[in-house]
Amino acid sequence: MKRVLIVFVLIGVVLVGCSRFAGAESLWQYGRIADVKKSVTTSTKAWVVNTPLDEERTQYTISVHVQGRIIVGNYELSAAQSEPPPEWVSGRAVQVEVSGDSLYLRSATGSLRLHITQRKAAGPMQPVTAEEKKRLSELDAAPQSMIGFSKSGDDKAAAPEPAPTPPPPPPAPSTGTVTVRSTPFLSEVFVDSDSMGYTPAKIALGPGKHSFRVEKPGYKPWTKEMTITVGSELTLDATLEKK
User: Fold this and answer.
1) pTM of whole model > 0.85?
2) Are 35 and 60 in contact (CB under 8 A)?
3) Which of 24, 58, 163, 243 is within CB 3.0–4.6 Å of 77 for a Cys-Cys bond?
4) Which of 16-30, 60-74, 117-131 has the lowest mean pLDDT?
5) Average per-residue pLDDT in the chain?
């Protein structure tokens, strides 16, 4: 009888532990944007009278520092997914939720859903300040009641809605662009070891030195380092040699 009781107790402990582990990543927590990268891939959709009709696909890769790890996710720009807010720069505090292979990010200026591509260990995250927590906690605040009555029982007139504030001016450019072409066509492009799609690709990068690598099965990798400045528009032509 004692053995049976011990077995049931152990099973209960294991089930509780598993439920906690399964739900450990299902709650909103604080994180900081580590990096935001944008890549544009151009592909020929059709030909009309020897003229190619090109289609551009824009993909964003966002790295987020959460506690002691970096979570990397990406998504393709579409009608359902807009560009990340311009305020989402390195060090920006956001709310993070991890659910399976999905990464959800939100702040007062926008929210996104990304597909997780990488998880890696990192040092401790810079603590979120009280002011940042206050700003992010407003996302969960319940709307206040707007119902009121006079002493005579008559309803108060509803207050007029404030006039909409004009949108802020567009931010000044903070990146440069690099167009990567290759021979052969449709080779994979890596920037600083991160895959950015296939050639021909138009990639927006922050200022500084970046390493480029172009690969295709059956060919030797092609590499080059280049320094990017704000507003620059550069072109790389990679010719891969067969192995």
Assistant:
1) no
2) no
3) 58
4) 16-30
5) 81
pLDDT attached to residue 171? 67
Q: For the chain, give the secondary structure using H, E and C.
A: CHHHHHHHHHHHHHHHHHHHHHHCCCCCEEEEEEEEEEEEEEEEEEEECCEEEEEEEEEEEEEEEECCEEEEEEEECCCCCCCCCCCCCCCCEEEEEEECCEEEEEECCEEEEEEEEEEEECCCCCCCCHHHHHHHHHHHCCCCCCCCECCCCCECCCCCCCCCCCCCCCCCCCCEEEEEEEECCCCEEEECCEEEEECCEEEEECCEEEEEEEECCCECCEEEEEEECCCCEEEEEEECCEC
How many Å apart are CA 55 and CA 179, to the nearest integer?
15
Please report which confidence band the pLDDT of residue 10 belongs to, taking 50, 70 and 90 as the band edges.
low
23 DSSP β-pair partners? none
Other Cβ atoms within 10 Å of 115 Cβ, number:
12
Angle at 207 between CA 220 and CA 127, to 5 degrees: 110
Whether residue 175 contacts residue 205, with contact meaning beta carbons closer than 8 Å, is answered with: yes
Q: What are phi and psi of 140, to 5 degrees?
A: -100, 0
- Span of 16-25, 108-117, 150-159, 219-228 with lowest mean pLDDT: 16-25
Half-sphere exposure of 103 (CA within 13 A, CB side): 23
Pairing of strands 176-183, 233-239: parallel
CB 91 within 8 A of CB 33: yes
Which candidate, 29, 24, 23, places its Cα nearest to that of 136?
29
